[in-house]
Specification:
Elements lengths: L1 H11 L4 H15 L4 E7 L5 E6 L10 H13 L7 E3 L7 H5 L1 H4 L3 E8 L5 E9 L5 H22 L6 H9 L1 H14 L3 E14 L3 E4 L4 E6 L5 E3 L4 E5 L2 H27 L4 H29 L2 E3 L4 E4 L10 E2 L4 E6 L4 E7 L12 E6 L2 E13 L4 E2 L5 E9 L11 E12 H17 L2
Antiparallel strand pairs: 1-2, 1-5, 3-4, 4-5, 6-15, 6-20, 7-14, 8-10, 8-13, 9-12, 10-11, 12-14, 15-19, 16-17, 16-20, 17-19, 18-19
Helix pairs in contact: 1-2, 1-6, 2-6, 9-10
């Protein structure tokens, strides 16, 4: 009796169900001088689960040893009313017997742990080289009561009331009812949906491109700044163009001087008269080049063609940057004309996404939803700004909502046709299976 009281104190100090089974395994190993003590618990589905091994801090469940012990516990669970029973030397089925000498000592007993309501909460395997005497069996019987009540107390705090659900699920009628309910739920009508990344973009923006090859000297506006028609947006470095223009003007002056000199000699010199046509063509060539450079000089500043918001990323990144003719610098957008640009991954694609309804949740307000409708759908997959393949969709917002700011991002759900819940849940697993098996 004094030994039982000594074993009760560590159980009372436990702070979790796992700790209870660790204490059970290690305390019995010391008290019985056992070479092997294994503790298992009954999980939420009524199956044994190896939970503690004496002298081991953590049990690796997915091993041959753990699997064999759990199969043996499942075999010995319905062991009558006796709490302590010897483990037979010959086990049935033969698969258990084949590995008995590898995983369990010959002199082994099995102790079942019951709660105060009579429910089975777990068990213990104890083994050693010599047999257990009657006093030790009595000690195990008494300790099984204390350990079972302690484990049962922590089990009652678990989220799933195992002891109430397991007998109910064990009934064949209950299994049929649950199975039929799940089968009926698979035929519930639901809408196909796909998740896409979304961005609020400008509709019908005016693109501002480089008017010539050169170097950007400075961007004169800030991102998302309102500009009026005619405002200067950026300025090119004028040094190269102006130097070329000065050289061209000098070349025109030289060509005109040569033309005048040849014209003066043409009255007396036959060769000078023949050279007049060449000199006139050279003057026209130099004049045309000068006119072209004059036009380039006039385009050293790019002005806004319309009023709106200047949409671009970082003005400092453009300063001193060489650009080519036609390279995009920014765009002018009307804040009253926006729509959604959706990037739908190919693996998320669904049928009938044209005119499909869309629900948008912006990153800055994930609890608020914005409704939209797809108006454009890409036939072929393009590339997202991050470099991933995706179908690009455009969706317009409903008229009853406040327009979000251009540049905001979020996630959008695109809804398709109505289908069964079973197909909705199994669509992606079936697709993965087809790819894996090559159907």
């Amino acid at each position: 009796m004094s030994s039982l009281f000594g074993l009760f104190d560590p159980l009372a100090a436990c702070r979790s169900e796992r700790e209870v089974f660790l204490v059970i395994a290690n305390e019995l190993s010391q008290q019985l001088a056992a070479d092997q003590v294994l503790a298992w618990r009954r999980n939420a589905w009524g199956r044994p689960q190896l939970w503690a091994v004496a002298g081991v801090s953590r049990v690796e469940r997915h091993t041959d040893f753990s699997s064999w012990v759990e199969k043996l516990a499942c075999r010995l669970m319905p062991g009558g009313e006796a709490a302590v029973a010897a483990v037979p030397l010959v086990l049935d089925p033969p698969a258990l017997q084949a590995e008995r000498h590898l995983h369990l000592l010959d002199n082994a007993v099995h102790v079942r742990l019951f709660g105060p309501d009579g429910s089975l909460v777990g068990g213990i395997f104890a083994g050693r080289s010599r047999a257990f005497d009657a006093a030790e069996i009595d000690l195990l019987t008494g300790y099984a009561v204390l350990a079972g009540r302690s484990a049962w107390g922590w089990r009652r705090k678990a989220w799933l009331p195992v002891d109430g659900w397991a007998p109910l699920l064990a009934r064949q009628r209950t299994r049929w009812v649950v199975g039929l309910a799940v089968l009926a739920a698979m035929f519930m009508p639901v809408r196909l949906s796909a998740l896409a990344s979304a961005e609020v973009t400008a509709r019908e923006p005016v693109t501002i491109t480089a008017t010539q090859d050169g170097v950007v000297e400075k961007i004169l506006v800030r991102p998302n700044q309102r500009v009026a028609a005619g405002d200067v947006l950026l300025r090119f470095d004028a040094a190269v163009v102006r130097n070329r223009l000065d050289v061209a003007r000098r070349a025109v002056a030289v060509a005109e001087a040569e033309l005048r000199r040849a014209s003066g000699k043409a009255f007396l010199d036959e060769s000078s008269r023949a050279e007049l046509q060449t000199l006139r063509a050279r003057v026209q060539e130099k004049a045309a080049e000068t006119q072209y450079l004059d036009e380039l000089s006039a385009r050293l500043q790019i002005k806004a063609p319309v009023a709106g918001l200047a949409v671009f990323a970082e003005p400092e990144a453009w300063s001193g940057r060489p650009v080519q003719t036609g390279e995009r610098v920014m765009s002018i957008a009307d804040p009253a004309k926006v729509w959604l640009t959706l990037y739908l991954p190919p693996e998320e694609d669904i049928p009938s996404r044209e005119r499909a309804p869309v629900t948008l949740n912006l990153d800055i307000s994930p609890l608020a939803s914005i409704q939209a409708t797809v108006v454009e759908s890409g036939y072929e997959a393009g590339m997202t700004p991050e470099g991933r393949p995706a179908y690009i969709l455009r969706a317009v917002l409903s008229d009853t909502q406040a327009l979000p700011r251009i540049g905001l991002r979020g996630s959008a759900t695109v809804y398709g046709d109505t289908t069964w819940l079973g197909y909705y849940l199994l669509r992606k697993p079936m697709r993965a299976a087809r790819r894996l098996l090559g159907w």
